[in-house]
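Support reply, case 0932

Customer input (verbatim):
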Amino acid sequence: MLQLPDIANDDGLYVPSDGDEVSKIYKTTNYGQFIYNTEYLNDRRINFLIYKYLTRQEPLPMIAVRPNSGYWEVVDEQDSLYAAVQLGIPVYFYKAYDSAPQAPRQIDMSFDDMKAIVDFCLDNHDFRY
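Our regenerated output:
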């Protein structure tokens, strides 16, 4: 198979020749444009991220967002956003792709259907250890 060389884009960044742009990464200190659910914040992880940033200069993880009522709703890495706010440093984020819509699953089983499944399992399998 022929391997094409990587090429530089306009910003001088190298892009695989067979690659398509799938997302853009943004940077901001305008924390007011984000909304997130505080129930998902993990204080230990926030402190750990801050510690790694201050002692090892490790960057914070990027956050994934999606548009919601004029704001960016954080769908992944809320702890990273909160750590960036406490440190007063820019946060890096990208727009998460919407997954393909899925048809709602409907399982409409009668008692007889469920009984048939249980009977099949009991008749055809040995559940002893």
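We compared this against your earlier run and they match. Two observations from our side: The helical segments are 43-56, 78-87, 111-124. The longest helix spans residues 43-56. Please reopen the case if you see a mismatch on your end.
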